Amino acid sequence: MLLSLKMNYKATMGEEYKAGCPPGNPTAGSNSDPDATKASEDILDPWTVRTSSAKGVDYDKLIVQFGSSKIDKELINRIERATGQRPHRFLRRGVFFSHRDMNQILDAYENKKPFYLYTGRGPSSEALHLGHLIPFIFTKWLQDVFDVPLVIQMSDDEKYLWKDLTLEQAYSYTVENAKDIIACGFDINKTFIFSDLEYMGQSPGFYKNVVKIQKHVTFNQVKGIFGFTDSDCIGKISFPAVQAAPSFSSSFPKIFRDRTDVQCLIPCGIDQDPYFRMTRDVAPRIGHPKPALLHSTFFPALQGAQTKMSASDPNSSIFLTDTAKQIKSKVNKHAFSGGRDTVEEHRQFGGNCDVDVSFMYLTFFLEDDDRLEQIRKDYTSGAMLTGELKKTLIDVLQPLVAEHQARRKAVTEETVKEFMAPRQLSFHFQSFCFDT
Questions:
Q1: pLDDT by residue (tens digit) across 302-324?
Q2: Which of 68, 128, 293, 308 is the most buried (most CB within 10 A)?
Q3: Alpha-carbon distance 110 to 227, whole Å?
């Protein structure tokens, strides 16, 4: 409720709420606090991420602002003990940095109780970029180590409402994006990919949950949470309930029959958290467990960490359709550098890995921890030049993208239909789900 009130205040007043600083009293608050000034310049919602810092968003402040919990060493060690697997590099390096109720998920797993995974994609273009892969790479790892079912929402209805697209275009992007998602290696026996435009009419359970959520969220609440205005179409205002519904197991009767008590774990970008704060507020009132969440940091644009990448700007990221030559050109021309102005200065003072995009990209995609640390030391000391760092990144990205393209080429239209067919799934706790 407090978070919702603060969001309402921000939407009305155009500034963050600060304790002890009522409207019209500028003396208490940001004027004397440069950090507060910086925070007021940061913009973060499900559609926009912008910060004034070259280092990117201050995630420690976000944890406090959103009221989530930091993924600490203790939690990472517990995941390792529960799964018997080395933690994914995204956990080891803080790419996934925040959570809600992950300990409940581990309690369930250790007590042989079922849970499932839910993530999604808003298909707004035919080609995905590297940043879009982050939640799917991690979700695949979670699916593999926990052996649980996964549902992937393709929110083509959202993109129709927000973008200048026809319904047919939005659905065609769903099919194309699904090919890239399947190419990440998901197990068809444990994975259901669905289009909102298609699945809603096939599943009364899904639509009933949408309506229940809509009944328990007021217009003022969604305005406060998402910043909607009186000029927004009613489709936008009602959409958050559609993104919330997959958090509840009864939305998928083919997988869970009519069970309402199977908890959901959602790996997603921190910008999607407003949807699920709303969902967690509603869940107990309609008889469902609150979904748990794992939040990732943002994948920076080539031009720097101040913004997210844009699918409409081909130079803002590496796309999964890019050739080896295009990857090399983009990194060399557009990747923001933390190096010095001259070789002499760089050798003397070293580079800044905190703002260097090539190094940031390596933290996402270079598996070898020891090599990554050596690169950090060499670049910081000046032993490695910016051109050498960019070449290292190019050598990592070119085969990664080429291998993805080869896997995607093997995904047929028939394969997509099989993944998108409502059906029973096979997973570790299946008998428990159906027999009790």
A1: 988 666 556 667 778 899 999 99
A2: 293
A3: 40
Buried b (16+ CB within 10 A) or exposed e, 414-424: eebeebbeeee
CA-closest candidate to residue 12, choices 281, 220, 219, 217? 220
Burial of residue 73 (CB within 10 Å: 0-12, 13-18, 19+) is exposed
H/E segment holding residue 119: strand 115-121
- For the segment 232-268, what is each residue's pLDDT rounded down to a tens digit? 999 999 999 999 999 999 999 999 988 999 999 999 9
pLDDT value, residue 42: 61
Q: Are strands 115-121 and 150-154 parallel, antiparallel or unpaired?
A: parallel
Question: Any long-range contacts for 357-361 (C-beta under 8 Å, 24+ apart)?
Answer: 357/300, 357/301, 357/302, 357/303, 357/304, 357/305, 358/331, 358/386, 358/389, 358/390, 358/392, 358/393, 359/389, 360/300, 360/305, 361/130, 361/300, 361/335, 361/393, 361/396, 361/397
Under DSSP, the state recorded for 295 is: E
Q: CA nearest 288: which of 259, 260, 251, 264?
A: 260
The predicted-structure confidence for 210-222, as pLDDT tens digits, reads as follows 999 999 999 999 9
Of 276, 384, 401, which is closest to residue 339 (Cα–Cα)? Answer: 384
Quick one: three-class SS letters along 202-266? CCHHHHHHHHHHHHCCCHHHHHHHHCCCCCCCHHHHHHHHHHHHHHCHHHCHHHHCCCCCCEEEE
Report in angstroms the alpha-carbon separations of 410 from 25, 191, 414.
62, 18, 11
Burial class (CB in 10 A: 0-12, 13-18, 19+), 54: middle
What radius of gyration do the chain's Cα atoms show? 22
- Classified as helix, coil or strand, 115 is strand
Under 8 Å between Cβ of 186 and 151:
no
- Which residue type occupies 370? D
Sign for the pseudo-dihedral over CA of 364, 370, 376, 382: negative
* Number of residues assigned to the chain: 436
Residue with tokens 């995905």: 128
